Amino acid sequence: MKYAFPDSFWWGSASSALQTEGAREGETTWDYWFAREPNRFHNGVGPQQTSTFYQHWKTDIQLLKQLNHNSFRTSISWARLIPDGIGEVNPEAVDFYNQVIDELNEQGITPFMTLFHFDMPMAMQEIGGWENRDVVDAYARYAQICFELFGDRVLHWFTFNEPIVPVEGGYLYDFHYPNVVDFKRAATVAYHTVLAHAQAVRAYRAGHYAGEIGIVLNLTPSYPRSQNPADVKAANVADLMFNRSFLDPVLRGEYPADLVALLKSYDQLPACKPEDGFLIAEGKIDLLGVNYYQPRRVKCRDSAVNPQAPFMPEWFFDSYEMPGRKMNPYRGWEIYEPGIYDILVNLRDNYGNPRCFISENGMGVENEQRFIENGQINDQYRIEFISEHLAWLHKGISEGCNCLGYHMWTFIDNWSWCNAYKNRYGFIQLDLATQKRTIKKSGEWFAATALNNSFDRE
Questions:
Q1: CA dihedral 283, 273, 311, 164 (to 10 degrees)
Q2: In percent, how much of the chain has pLDDT > 70?
Q3: Residue 287: CB partners within 8 Å, gap ≥ 6?
Q4: Residues near 190 by beta carbon (within 8 Å), at least 6 away in sequence
Q5: Is 417 left (phi over 0), alpha (psi -120 to 50) or beta?
Q6: How far is Cα 299 from Cα 321, in angstroms, rounded to an integer?
Q7: d(CA 38, CA 45)
Q8: Cα–Cα distance for residue pair 446/362, rounded to 1 Å
Q9: What is the mean pLDDT of the chain?
Q10: Structural domain boundaries of the chain?
Q11: 417/33 Cα distance (integer angstroms)
Q12: Which DSSP helix (H) or strand (E) runs through 338?
């Protein structure tokens, strides 16, 4: 069967500044944390050991062109552009990002630019990070500077990438700095992130730029174990906390009443100001990026909550392992391709069918050297992963979902937070020792798919 996609469909990949650039002036929370706890990072490999995009951007963009990308998402590093978060702009960073943006445009690759992809300047974290409204204002200033510097040539902006992840990692589950476990502080961080997003949107609108502004959310559909009301309720709470806590403010301009009522009943609401509601209403976006990797399967709790334990989302649900599920064993994630369709249908039916695109989707595999044939990694498993997801994406589009593109995570095998280089995700193999780049079989497959705007599968 042939799967053909709409004209001008965005074919590309996604990456981030911190995971690819290397060599920075400004210290981030990741640099700080790695210097103190290198044992928390796979094989002790930290954020300095990247795929050296800062040095190789020109040849890397040639590789993007070779893979027939018509679009590419990366991020600006706040800590590179404004090392202390609030002070002088670093002219070398301006030159670097100008060169990257100009080269992408010259090669016919539309730049999609994210303003915040987990890399908080350490100077901002030292005054409380997203718990501090001063940091919200500093971010808004940083965003405005980016729009002024690059907004004439970047026409697709994203305020945040996966804003729920620093909330979960930094303030609930201890997998990002500052390693706090405190729900109310987590709720404050989430709330202030939405305010920061809305301030950036307001600044963008005020500047009357030619492009559009949005946000990238990792949407993880919550599936109940059964249709038993207790399981359905558990899945709804998970959806409220992990999806709708950002989805509703950015698409509807307000928080779900059920979420507010739930947090209020447990005294977990962040401090709000009367004018916040007006600001949040102004933060409605033009374009939604959807990162989809895995589903969340949920059942009602089987046991009573320990009243002495910290208040957590898991007070309301347990995770559920569906029998017969398909797994990526290297990442420990379920592979469930229809989830991408379910997300699009939910957006169509419940959120007014917003303009959206798949901004990340991918699979990380360990020790891919096992699959080298004639000097090239034969990653047929990745081709199958992408084509299965694209088939469900195609179904959504054919049923009227307003999805405009597909970006794979990622372009070149890159550094991946605490996992470092444990799992490889790229279309292009990176030899860490030599920085040599070699296109994998999946890269060739994607290049052909993008060129033809279609693919065939049985």
A1: 20
A2: 100
A3: 156, 158, 212, 213, 214, 354, 355, 356, 357, 404
A4: 163, 164, 167, 245, 246, 270
A5: left
A6: 9
A7: 7
A8: 13
A9: 96
A10: 2-456
A11: 11
A12: helix 338-350
Residue 232 vs residue 329, higher pLDDT = 232
Question: Residue 40 burial by CB count (10 A; 0-12/13-18/19+): exposed, middle or buried?
Answer: middle
pLDDT at 458 over 80: no
Contact between residue 6 and residue 454 where contact means Cβ atoms under 8 Å apart: no
Is the sign of the CA dihedral 405, 411, 415, 421 positive or negative? positive
Which residues share a beta bridge with 156? 112, 212
Amino acid at 326: K
Tokens standing for residue 159:
């305020």
What's the token pair of residue 393? 């994406």
Contacts of 259 (CB under 8 A, 6+ apart): 240, 241, 244, 245, 248
CA end-to-end distance (rounded Å), the chain: 6
Q: Is the pLDDT of residue 388 over 90?
A: yes
Q: What is the mean pLDDT of residues 202-229?
A: 98
Helices (H), 399-440: none
Q: Name the β-bridge partners of 321.
A: none
- What DSSP element (H or E) covers 186? helix 183-206
CA distance 454 to 450: 7
Q: Please give the positions annotated as active site.
A: 360
**How is residue 280 written in tokens?**
């949040």
What CATH class has 2-456?
alpha beta
DSSP secondary structure code for residue 409 in this structure: E
In angstroms, rounded to a whole number, what is the distance separating the alpha carbons of residues 160 and 314? 25
Residue type, position 345, single letter: V
Q: How far apart are CA 439 and CA 450, in angstroms?
A: 15
Count of alpha carbons within 13 angstroms of residue 110, beta-carbon side:
15
DSSP string, 66-100: HTT-SEEEEE--HHHHSTTSSS---HHHHHHHHHH
In 151-182, which residue ranges form alpha helices assigned H by DSSP?
164-171
Q: Which amino acid is at 50?
A: T
- Residues facing 407 on adjacent strands: 12
296, 238 Cβ separation under 8 angstroms:
yes
Strands 454-456 and 2-4, bridge-based pairing: antiparallel
Beta-strand ranges (E) seen in 136-176 are 156-161
Distances (CA, A) of 387 to 73, 390, 394, 421: 21, 5, 10, 25
Strand partners of residue 424: 365
How far is 160 from 214, CA to CA, in rounded Å?
Answer: 8
